[in-house]
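Posting this for the archive.
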Amino acid sequence: MVEDGHTPGLSAFNHIRFAAPPRKFIDSSPGVATFRPVKIGVLQLNSTIGDYEANRAKLVAAYERACAQGAECVIAPELFLCGYPPRDLLLRSDFVEANLAILAAVAASVGPVPLCVGYVDKNTVFPGRPLANAAAVLQDGKIIWHYHKSLLPTYDVFDEDRYFEPAKSVAPFVFNGRKIALTICEDIWNDEDFWPDRLYRRDPIRELIGQGADLILNISASPWHAGKEKTRIAMLQRVARDEKVPLVQVNLIGANDELIFDGHSVALNRQGEVIALGKGFAEDVFVVEVDGPATPVSVTWPVPEENLFRALSLGIRDYVQKCGFKSVVLGLSGGIDSAITAVLAVDALGADHVLGVSMPARYSSSGSLTDAELLAKNLGIRYEVIPIEPGFKAVEGQLAKVFAGTKPNEAEENIQSRLRGVTLMALSNKFGSLVLTTGNKSEMAVGYCTLYGDMCGALAVIADVFKTDVYKVSRWINREKVVIPTDSITKPPSAELRPNQTDQDSLPEYDTLDAILQHYVVEHLSKAEIIARGFAPAVVNDVINKVTFSEYKRRQAAPGLKVSQRAFGMGRRIPIAQRFRPAR
């Protein structure tokens, strides 16, 4: 297909071939025409951004596996060859050329069974952006078809309009006598019957169905947040049912920086019933027969805590390994946040690759040390105790003259946190382990954290998990046996930076705090709307002020794994120097 007058980037597009003579309609009853069943291979794979050779090898191996299972057409995720999202690597011509070269290399390995895979194409019609988010169909060593994405998301974590030129028109791909609506991710997310507020005027699916398409194939890199897997499949079911066509979607799996991709690729019949479902948070290759006698399957979803745990574990594993590291180090305070982070790290990397460090000072309770040691024993990880009290005394002495006549406050408290950051970073530098930070979303929101202290590290594992959800996941972890010490869950949370300190000295109860943060940060409700839901005006005002004044801290935080609809970081772009204050 040549879209919008685009000349295909590679001459191989001019050679259109098919695996077999076109199949004919089969009349199942007078006046009713149906297509012969077709077996679609689904390659739910994990790619690494810019690792072209590894991505090629994985893709070709999975393609051969699907072919061995009888696939007649195979699909792989959006932008799989270069990895998603490539961001400003797309501004590098050598990155784009390497992607085109690897596409040609993959084509050379493809036989008579067509393979559809996502890549970056060049846009040769100007004015317009220089690139296109594209899908290529490969067969018999050649590139026989391509399709450019029409709907380019620019909300939340997406910024595709920065790089890509959208297709202005679409046409179905003809394969073995039937017209296929080959689409890319967002192209299928604009169904007017499912979404009350649509973001785009066009609906590429309706356009393709209007041209006689009788099968929808969608290649996606759809990032996950809590509940997203259910919403995605419900939306796809509505499309299949309304258009009365079978639908197969392949979704990326894996994590790249903050984003986590859950897989859950799916095949639906014409009634919108699920006939095959890919694994969650794991690679999967399967072949499904559409328009055949496949029996609908019953979908049972894990509890939310399990999905959240698996997502975060995957996020740690891919971040560490794709950055070229093998191990991590983190501080163990005896509290619930560091405990859950350690459990996740062990699940992601194995106990042999996790170092837990307790760094007591004068305000550390004996119970905290006991809980940290017990957790390390339960997990089977290496555990070290490195007191920071000598360093704390040295810094106090260093500052004694200039601090003379002042009362102890956050300055002295934060010295302790920063000494712990220095200790962990020294271990990281010496042994080549990445430091995991252990702060949760509730703390990050209101600035209950210390720059260059507990915020110090390479990855903020639970920075998008509210404290109340940390408790829920911790109890799920302990559902069969005690992994996280019971006292770490039940004792009042404390930073232990001054005598008898608790979090609630400075913050509302976490149930209240997290509810306000959900309304303000995630749902974008105004102060008045939040107060109208029954929250005390003084508490709401204090929380919102804390969120506003802590923006400079979050801008300097380690990247955090995104697991909610609105995470701090790349999907929430708030100016630091600004004076807007919500009306009182």
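The radius of gyration is 27 Å. Residues 122 and 345 are 40 Å apart (CA to CA).
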